[in-house]
Amino acid sequence: MSKVGKLPVVIPKGVKVDLKKAQINVTGPKGTLSQELHKDMIVKVEGESVVVARPSDNKQHRSLHGLTRVLIQNMVVGVTDGYSKTLQLIGVGYRAELKGKLLMLYLGYSHPILFRPPEGIDIKVNPKENTITISGIDKQMVGQSAAMIRKFRPPEPYKGKGIRYIDEVVRRKAGKAVGK
């Protein structure tokens, strides 16, 4: 039995879970999320929890067991608390600002970079700390949006300049060694 898959997903108060064949809809105070689940997985709502079971012990079903449970857990947490990631801009002249919904990034290129966040993603910029906070109810979309912004100027190993996650540690390299 999967250690992750056998745990029930507790449904907090104010969250409603609807199951229709291989489709699950989770509605909560922050919004609604929908997910298509694998047709072989057995998902049941039992009282105040969602239980995931697998039909057999073959490799694919074992793999899908824990995944299905975690996808449902992420949906429940997303509609109750939401998710957020914080990025930090490090470099001389690197800054970010919001123009309506658009994120304008000045990252040392000859032009500013415009980033239009996907639907359901909220972006906040703190210019004093030079940070960007990405938040939303869909964990995958929040992570994907943060990764797309980071990709514009990933941190480089010599000076450490670039966009990094707030808790990311960048391994630094030594510069050129001057020989005799």
User: How far do the termini sit from each other?
Assistant: 63 Å
Residue share in helix:
10-25%
Mean pLDDT: 92
The structural domain count equals 2
Structural class: alpha+beta
Could you give the order of strands across the largest sheet? 11-12-7-13
Give a description of the structure:
It is a single chain. This protein has 180 residues and is an alpha+beta fold. The chain has helices at residues 59-80, 139-151, and strands at residues 9-10, 16-20, 23-28, 31-36, 42-46, 49-53, 83-90, 95-99, 102-106, 113-115, 121-126, 131-136, 162-165. The protein has two domains: 9-80, Ribosomal protein L6 (Outer Surface Protein A, domain 3, Alpha-Beta Complex); 83-165, Ribosomal protein L6 (Outer Surface Protein A, domain 3). A four-stranded antiparallel beta sheet has the order 11-12-7-13, covered by helices on one side. Strands 1-6-5 form a three-stranded antiparallel beta sheet, with helices on one face. Strands 2-3-4 form a three-stranded antiparallel beta sheet, covered by helices on one side. It is elongated and about 70 Å long.
